[in-house]
TrEMBL record:
The keyword Aminoacyl-tRNA synthetase does not apply. SUPFAM superfamilies: Cupredoxins (SSF49503), Cytochrome c (SSF46626), Cytochrome c oxidase subunit II-like, transmembrane region (SSF81464). GO terms for molecular function: copper ion binding; cytochrome-c oxidase activity; heme binding; oxidoreductase activity. Residues 165-283 form the Cytochrome oxidase subunit II copper A binding domain. Residues 68-164 form the Cytochrome oxidase subunit II transmembrane region profile domain. It holds the Pfam family COX2. The chain crosses the membrane at residues 51-71, 91-113, 134-154. GO terms for cellular component: plasma membrane. Residues 296-419 form the Cytochrome c domain. The gene is coxB. It is a multi-pass membrane protein. Its main location: membrane. It catalyses: 4 Fe(II)-[cytochrome c] + O2 + 8 H(+)(in) = 4 Fe(III)-[cytochrome c] + 2 H2O + 4 H(+)(out). This is Cytochrome c oxidase subunit 2.
């Protein structure tokens, strides 16, 4: 039994020591003017260090932005679009009501706290059932606000969702990891519908009816400068309208996580004045891929594109090359594949890899892309054409094909020859909207 009092005594001694130490710390802090306890002092230093790191954070953000291939910003507040203007009008009411509610609730809170402070009221508070009138107001006001916002939302949906008959129609197919844009109202003279991969043309100053679907997983079509986004879902067609009053090149991205190269699934929207848009579509309608000159690299590239290359070893298909025409369409040629994006106007396009590279970088990356696209774009399903390199298909390693450097260069030369007439170059003298470092026109 003697052990228990001894233990209690030791505990009391330790408690007394702790109290004495706390008192010394407190009085020392009181005597030092302008200096608080150590714990607060450390927090102050942390705040200063955070402010000191702020310029580094800004610099890091700038450097990361500079590392991106697409030097073009997105804006949901682009008032050149009637879609965005309508959303903005609705948002003004929602923002205004939110501000009123915030200040109203804050005033009521601080007024109540100040009026009924304990030091001003010594008597116990009166007990009562409640305030029926106040409770009615607290229920009625939110209901009225919600109904008002609902009416505004339904009004905006009624304006934006229907697509007028005179709207320009564009069908969009999304697949891992690229886009294809077809113009169902424009039939090509060479057969089929006019289409373009990864670059969408649209007219200004009139509604454009977009119909989007997916060929594999769920994607998201998002070009906020021209309007709202929609999910691209397999076996589902979604139609809505977008528009812009300003000619220019706009950035578009996939907004749904869809695989390894989701961030590399981009596209461009090129909005042209109505007269130039009509002239460009007319040139696309009449377009036929040019005939390569005999003995030229383009002729060799054409043959490889259409027919592929027989395997030197029948037991090893990777020693040959499959034709590109099995997956891609080129207007005015036997190539009618639908597995990959349309390449009819490849030489006019200024992006590569679904917007992964732009301008001169796209030109520089064409050979590496043809040699081994999965190596430069994760998840790409286009097979490599370099020494039978392996790539992944549905999670399984698969052998690619083999072309020599001369043959790769010949295919690249043929692709570059697939150009619209100079007067139909839809990139010429069109301003890039939201360009950061590049600026200017394309």
């Amino acid at each position: 039994m003697s052990a228990r009092p001894a233990a209690r005594g030791r505990a009391l001694v330790w408690t007394a020591r702790l109290h004495a130490r706390a008192r010394r710390t407190f009085y020392t802090a009181r005597k030092r003017k302008g200096v608080t306890l150590n714990t607060t002092h450390r927090h102050s230093g942390t705040r200063r260090s955070r402010w000191a790191l702020a310029p580094l954070a800004v610099l890091g953000s700038a450097l990361l932005t500079g590392c991106q291939q697409a030097q073009q910003s997105l804006s949901i507040g682009d008032m050149a679009s009637a879609f965005n203007r309508e959303i903005w009008v609705m948002s003004i009411w929602a923002i205004a009501l939110s501000i009123i509610i915030f200040f109203g609730v804050s005033f009521a809170l601080f007024y109540t706290v100040q009026k009924f402070r304990e030091d001003k009221h010594d008597a116990p508070p009166a007990q009562f059932h409640g305030n029926n009138k106040l409770e009615v107001w607290l229920v009625a006001v939110p209901v009225v606000i919600v109904i008002f916002l609902s009416v505004l939302t339904v009004r905006s949906m009624a304006i934006l969702n229907p697509t007028p008959d005179q709207a320009t129609k564009i069908d969009i197919l999304a697949k891992q990891f690229w886009w294809n844009f077809e113009y169902p109202e424009v039939k090509a003279d060479a057969g089929g519908e006019v289409a373009n991969g990864n670059e969408m043309l649209m007219p200004t100053r009139q509604p454009v009816a977009l119909t989007v679907t997916s060929g594999d997983v769920i994607h998201g079509f998002w070009a906020p400068n021209i309007g709202g986004q929609r999910a691209a879902m397999p076996a589902v067609n979604k139609t809505w309208q977008v528009d812009t009053d300003r000619a220019g090149v706009y950035q578009g991205n996939c907004s749904q996580l869809c695989g390894a190269s989701h961030a590399n699934m981009r596209y461009k929207v090129i909005a042209l004045d109505q007269a130039r848009y009509d002239a460009t579509l007319a040139a696309m309608k009449a377009y036929r891929a040019p005939e390569p000159a005999p003995g030229s690299p383009e002729e060799l590239g054409y043959k490889l594109f259409m027919q592929g290359k027989p395997a030197t070893d029948p037991k090893r298909p990777e020693t040959g090359a499959a034709s590109c025409a099995g997956c891609h369409r080129v207007q005015g040629t036997p190539a009618g594949g639908q597995v990959g994006p349309d390449l009819s106007f490849f030489g006019t396009r200024r992006t590569l890899g679904a917007g992964m590279w732009e301008g001169q970088k796209a030109e520089d990356m064409l050979i590496p892309w043809l040699k081994n696209s999965p190596a430069v774009k994760p998840g790409a399903l286009m097979p490599p054409y370099e020494n039978g390199a392996e790539y992944m298909v549905n999670g399984k390693p698969t052998k690619g094909y083999s072309l020599t450097d001369e043959e790769i260069n010949a295919v690249a030369a043929y692709l570059r020859s697939l150009k619209l007439p100079e007067e139909a170059d839809y990139w010429r003298d069109v301003p890039v909207i939201g360009a950061s470092s590049n600026g200017g026109t394309q």
